[in-house]
UniProtKB/TrEMBL annotation:
This is Aminotransferase class I/II-fold pyridoxal phosphate-dependent enzyme. Its cofactor is pyridoxal 5'-phosphate. The keyword Transmembrane helix does not apply. It comes from the Bacteria.
Length: 382
């Protein structure tokens, strides 16, 4: 039997999302692990997809994305953040945000370059760095507040540093960047050749009246940034895999060199339907309040449990401290909780290069109230 002599990702196996979702299915547990809603997509969006399919928009879209969708994205970003991106040269529609992350990272990095990764980090970042023959330099957040340690970031920079990867609102912790973070970042990258990949897929899920600090807001940061977002998170359609990347023309040109050989183009009728939906800003402007109600509902139902909720400023994830219940490693406790109590969650130590374990788990509250009610009842029995 012929095989591959040497793996390009020797330390990478099946993702934790796949493993925990499979365990939830196997055991019949409520799946609060993988981040996807269990409620319906807006019927209007479904209708618009059908309209465009029936009207014959079923062939390849342009490599950069449907022009109308790119124009609507440009209008939205300018309305929200005050920066106008040229839809012809500075916006690329991708097959999900993960594809955009991969294309941005590989466009930036040459062999032996270094990329600073804020940890815990979404698990798509480091493999893309590794495949570029570059070096990931972890910079851990400060627990329990999960704030970026900018002194550590600054100390990690050297002449080989080419990239900083940011994620706000942050998965898995639910924290967001604030103005002090932006000030620190601007000071660090000033007068350097460092680029930024800013994963902002939860940009519209910012809670408690806070403001999303996009790289787009700041000209000095925007000129060195790939800003990535996702329609799947905004319109509750994670399985459709449509995202996009904003970047200045020179950076977008390099991004598209990669993109054209990864997916070339993305689902055409869905792109047209999303362009239609962007004519209704209320759909994304009200998203924070929608998910804030779900977060508050979930937290109210686990108030009598032994779990301790950590602050959740954005995303649809709630971190729960289980240290009053067990001192088991989070990977072991997550499996036992799924098997014995019927609720699946994500152990965030897997998002640390050194498997740092704070005895917390990540729970997705993008669920119907009856799902959250039943999951909370089970958690209260632990």
């Amino acid at each position: 039997m012929t095989g591959i002599d040497r793996s390009r990702l020797p330390d990478t196996g099946v993702t934790i999302f796949t493993r925990m979702s499979a365990l939830a299915q196997q055991t019949g547990a409520i799946n609060l692990s993988q981040g996807f809603p269990d409620f319906s997509v807006d019927p209007l969006l479904i209708d618009r997809v059908l309209v465009h399919m029936r009207e014959g928009r079923n062939q390849y879209a342009p490599m950069q994305g449907v022009p109308l969708l790119r124009e609507r994205i440009a209008e939205k970003v300018e309305r929200l953040y005050g920066r106008r991106y040229d839809p012809n040269t500075e916006i690329t529609v991708t097959s999900g945000a993960t594809e955009a992350v991969f294309c941005a990272i590989t466009a930036c990095l040459q062999p032996a370059d270094q990329a600073i990764v804020i940890e815990p980090a979404y698990d798509a970042y480091i493999p893309a760095i590794t495949l570029s023959h570059a070096v990931a330099v972890p910079s851990p957040m400060r627990f329990p507040g999960y704030r970026i340690d900018w002194d550590h970031v600054r100390d990690s920079i050297c002449e080989k540093t080419r990239l900083i990867i940011l994620n706000s609102p942050h998965n898995p912790t639910g924290t967001i960047l604030d103005r002090s973070d932006i000030d620190a970042l601007r000071q660090i990258v000033a007068d350097t050749r460092i680029l930024i990949v800013s994963d902002e897929v939860y940009e519209h899920i910012v809670l408690d009246g806070r403001m999303h600090e996009s790289m787009c807001r700041y000209p000095d940061l925007a000129e060195r940034s790939f800003v990535i977002s996702s329609f799947g998170k905004t319109y509750h359609a994670t399985g459709w895999k449509i995202g996009y990347c904003l970047a200045p023309e020179a950076l977008s040109a390099e991004f598209q060199k990669i993109h054209q050989f990864v997916t070339f183009s993305s689902n055409t009728p869905v792109q047209y339907a999303l362009a239609d939906m962007l004519e209704k800003p209320s759909a994304y402007l009200e998203l924070g309040n929608f998910y804030q109600r779900k977060r508050d509902f979930f937290r109210s139902r686990i108030a009598d449990s032994r779990f301790i909720p950590l602050p959740c400023e954005g995303t649809y994830f709630q971190m729960l401290d289980y240290s009053r219940i067990s001192d088991e490693p989070d990977t072991d406790f997550a499996v036992r909780m799924t098997r014995e109590f019927g609720v699946a969650a994500i152990p965030p130590s897997v998002f640390h290069s050194d498997r740092q374990d704070h005895r917390v788990l990540r729970f997705c509250f993008a669920k119907n109230e009856h799902t959250l009610e039943e999951a909370a009842a089970r958690l209260c029995r632990i």
